[in-house]
Amino acid sequence: MSVGAISTSNVNAIKGTEFEGMSIQMMAAMVMLEVGATKKKEAEMKIADMKGQNDKAKKLNNLVDRMNADLGGVTKDDDDNNKKRASILKSYYEEAKSLGIDTSSWGASEVNLPASFRGASSMTQKVLFIPSKTAEQVRSITSQIQHMAENCNSDNQTQMVKLQDFMGQYNSFVSGASDQIKNANQILQGLAKN
Q1: Global pTM?
Q2: What is the pLDDT, as a whole number, of residue 101?
Q3: Which of 23, 79, 135, 140 has the smallest CB count inside 10 Å?
Q4: What whole-number distance in Å separates Cα of residue 62 and Cα of residue 47?
Q5: Distance between CA atoms of 118 and 151, rounded to whole angstroms?
């Protein structure tokens, strides 16, 4: 195996850049600090994502708690109670949709309510209609929301592992940069003594 001539083009590529005149150790330190800063930014983005997930989980849990409180007194499975459950669900429908909840199991639909039915003289109005719900159907809906909140929390745990990895990488690069700077200083001190 033979070793060819080493090109000076790589050295010439440094001329005119912020690295010109720096030692190899200082260049390595600069690169490590830059990579470390990138890892820090990635960690900050993960933190923001985790905060968003945490906020969503809180909103979902709050929604379930309020729904369960309102539904707590509606215990029988008769026509009147089933209609009450539908009315309670209707009051939470828009909030649930805004939180990204799949509301297809709620059976909601918009119906045209004629003006004469409302006691008005003109124009029909679209009204949200949710059909009667049994206690079991409502339990299924609230369980779905609770499950979504738990998934947000579970996802946050996964994100925490990734965050720890980014922070470990950041610390490693900053430590490596510090070591390179120490090495460069030792070399300069050794040269100054000679």
Answers
A1: 0.67
A2: 93
A3: 79
A4: 22
A5: 43
